[in-house]
Amino acid sequence: MNCERYQDKLIAALASGEKSLDLDVAAHLRACAECGKFYEAQVQLFQAIDSGLRAVVNERMPASLLPGVRAQIAAKRMAGSWFLTLVPVAGIVMVALLILVPLVRYGLHSSAARVAGIPERREIGPEHRLAVLNVPEKPGASPVKKLRDARHVRGSTAAQPAAQTAAVDVLVDPEESRGLRRLAEVVRESPQWAMAMLHPAELPASHADVIRAVQFSDLEVKPLSEEDR
Amino acid sequence: MRELVLIQPGRVLVGPSERESESRRAHREFEERLRECGPLAFRVAYGVLRNAADAEDVAQEALLKAYRNFRRLREPTRFRGWLVRIAFRMALDRWRSAKRREKRETEWTGPEQRALGPTTEELAVSSEFQARLEKAMEELPEKFRLVLLLAAIQVYTLDEVSGMLGIPMGTVKSRLFFARKQLAEKLR
Asked: For residue A181, what are the contacts with CB-CB under 8 A and spacing of at least 6?
C-alpha cells in the first residue's frame, strides 16, 4: 500500500472520530516520517475544526430569551381570553340590536302617527273590492276618482263604526251590478242568508250555491262607465 | 332519568374545570420544556447565523411556534427534535435572506465598497481560521450541517442526536463522517 492510501485511511479514521488507528496504519506511521507529519497536521486540523464548531454552537444563551418567550405567550393568552370573552358579548349585543331596532322603529312610527292623527296603513286586498264609502259626492266627479278618494280614506272608514256610514256606494262592473242589485233585494227579503254568510258551516248543503250574499244597509250599486273600465 | 352522552372514539369526556386544569398542566409542561430546550434552540440558530441577536430572534420564534403546537409535541424527545428542526430551518431562511440582502447592497454600493475588509470588531470576534471554518460550514449540505451542529453541542450524545432527528444511529455517524471530511478538505 502506498502513502496516499495510508493518508486516506488516516483521514477517514480522524473524520469518524476513532480513537485508535488500525495496526497496519500505525505501523506505517512509525516507519514513514512524511506520513507521520501528515498525520500530526491532520490531527491538529480536526482538533481545530472541533474546537471551532464548539465555539460556534456552545455560545451562551442570552438571559433575555426565555423571559421574552414567556412574555409573548402571556400576551397571546391574554389576547385569547379577551377574544373569548368578547365574542359572546358581541353576539348578545347583535341579537339584542336585531330585535330592538325594528321594535323601536315600529313603536315610534305608530305613536307618532297616533299623535298626528294619521291613520295607520293597511294592506288593500281583494276583499276590499266592494268599497264601503263615506265620501261626500262631488258634482261632476267620475266614479274612478271617487274610488281613488275612497281608497285614500278606506283605512279610516273601516276603523269607524258602521253606524256613521250614512251613504254607501259600491263601484262594480255592469254584470256585477245587476247581480248585486238582485242579491241586495234577496238579502233584504231573507236576512238569514246574510247570517249564513257569517256562519257557513251551519248552513244546510242545499243553500251552498247561494252563499255569495253580503248584507249592506242603504246599499246603492252604481255601474262603472265605459271609459272608467 | 338517564342522560345519554356521545363521545368521539378515542376521546375522553372532560368538564370545564378538568379542561382548565389540563390547560394549566400543559402550560407547566411547556415551561419545563422551555427551560430544557431553550438553549438548544438558541445554539442551533447561532450555529447557522453566528449572530447572537438574530439567533435570539429565531429561537424565540421557534419556541413560540412550539408552544402553539404543544398539544402534539408533549413527548420530550419529539418536542426536542421538532424544535431543533424548526429552529434550524428558520435560521437557514434568515441566513439566506440576509445573504440576498447583502448581495443586493453590495451590487448597489459598487465594487470599491466591496474591497473593504472585515471591521476590527469582526476581526476581534473571529480568527481567520474561524472565518474559514464558518464559510466551509455554509457550503455543507443542510442535513450534514445540522448533524454536525448537534454533535458539537456538548450536552448531547450521538444517540440523543439520532433520537432527536428520528434517524438511525448509523445515518448520524455517516453524515457526521462526511461532514467532517468535507470540512477538512475545504480547510486543508
From this structure: A221
Q: What is the pLDDT of residues A106-145, one digit of tens each?
A: 766 566 556 655 555 444 444 444 444 444 445 555 554 5
What's the pLDDT tens digit per position in A172-203? Answer: 677 777 787 787 787 778 777 776 666 655 55
**DSSP H or E segment with residue A88:** helix A65-116
ipTM for the whole complex: 0.73
Q: B38, B63 in Cβ contact below 8 A?
A: yes
SS3 A220: strand
Domains in chain B, please, with CATH?
19-116 (1.10.1740), 119-188 (1.10.10.10)
Nearest Cα residue to A15 out of B107, B180, B26: B180
pTM beyond 0.80, yes or no: no
Alpha-carbon gap, residue A154 to A131, rounded angstroms: 8
Cα–Cα distance measured from residue A184 to residue A186, given in angstroms and rounded to the nearest whole number: 5
The alpha carbon of residue B40 is apart from the nearest alpha carbon of chain A, in Å, by: 9
E strands present in A25-161: none
Q: Is A79 on the interface with B (CB under 8 A)?
A: no
Tell me which residue has cell 453524515: B175
Count CB-CB contacts under 10 A for residue B148. Answer: 23
Domain boundary assignment for chain A: 3-57, 64-118, 126-228
Q: State residue B73 phi and psi, 5-degree precision.
A: -125, 30
Let me know how long chain A is.
229
Burial level of B31, CB count in 10 A (0-12/13-18/19+)? middle
Which of the residues A49, A51, A64 would you substitute to probe the B interface, choosing the one with the greatest number of B C-beta atoms within 10 Å?
A49
B44/A contact by beta carbon, under 8 A: yes
Strand A168-172 and strand A219-223: pairing? parallel
**B170 inside 8 A of chain A by CB:** no
- Nearest alpha carbon to residue A134 among A110, A167, A161: A167
C-alpha span between B23 and A194 (Å, rounded)? 77
